[in-house]
Every structure is written in structure tokens, then in C-alpha cells.
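Exam revision sheet. Question 4 asks you to relate a sequence to its structure. Input first:
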Amino acid sequence: MSVGAKMVKTRRPLGCLASTVNVSGPEYLRRRAGRERTAVERQTRLMRERGEETWRGLTRQRVAAFFELFLRCMVWTENGEREGRPHPEIVEALLGTLVWKIIPWVDQHRVWSNWEGRWPMTLEHFQELDNDLCNYLPSVHAGQQWQRIRVYFGDMARVREQRRREERERRRERANQVRRVLQL
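Answer key, C-alpha cells:
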């Protein structure tokens, strides 16, 4: 076999440059490296290539994981490129998933319950995403579905605060009753 010829396709390089030249040929080392990617971008790109979000049904846990990924890619600038911005391809993938899958799913799965485990996402994720949509994506923030979600979580936050106040009042009443009994 000649020096310039490539080896069989099933052979893998061992990790050193000489092995890479031996397996892939000398022109392999002359290629330019691709652009720099952050770990979050690589993860997002792999998920998009595998089509993970398309064939799996959404659950509360998957929505929470998406929000974490969305916040890490789009909002927290330390995960962007050198300028602090994510790659346009990543932006397109995440925004498309948010607008066409996540927001409609959250809108459809609103449940009027006091138990947070039945809510489509946590109140903390909602508050952070609501703030970011208001600042960076006003057209999505002004949409009908997101406005229904805002009303829903506003009501849930109001009910939660009301229950906390009632619980504090009950505790105060009990403490006063105990004081009265102990003073007799």
C-alpha cells in the first residue's frame, strides 16, 4: 500500500497524529478546524440533530430541562461565543422549540390546583422566563398563549401568597392560645 493511500474505513486512529495520518491520509491534518463551540451549544446541536424533542412527549420534567437549557444558552452570556451571543443556528432551534412546542404545551396543561406538582412548570421558571421574554422577545411575550399563561401563574401566585398569610394567622392564633393557657 502506498503512503498517500487511505486505509480501510473500519480502522480508527489511535489518538496520535501519526496514527491519524496513517488511517485518514496526510490531507486530513491540513483541514481547518471548525469554529469554537461551547459545551451548551454542542449539547443543543446534538439534541437537535438527534431530534430528541420531536419524538418524545413533553412532561413537566422535560419542560423544566428545556427551560434550564434555554436559560443557559440564551440568557446567561458566559455560555455564548466570545461576544457573549449564541450561534444563530442554536437561537433558531431553541426559539422554534419554545414558540411551537413548549409554550403551547404549557398553555394546554394548565391545571387549577394548589399543589405545585400538577402545574406545567415551576413558578420560579415562569418568573425568570417571563422577565426574559419581556426584555428580549416582546413579540412572544405579547402573544395570546403567553398572556394566558401569565394570568394563570399570576392567579397561582396570589393563591399561594393568600394561603401563606392564612397559615401565618393560624400559627399566631395557636401561639396566642398557648400563651393564654400557660398564663392561667
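Marking note for examiners. Helices lie at 17-24, 39-50, 52-55, 60-75, 88-108, 123-136, 138-141, 144-183.
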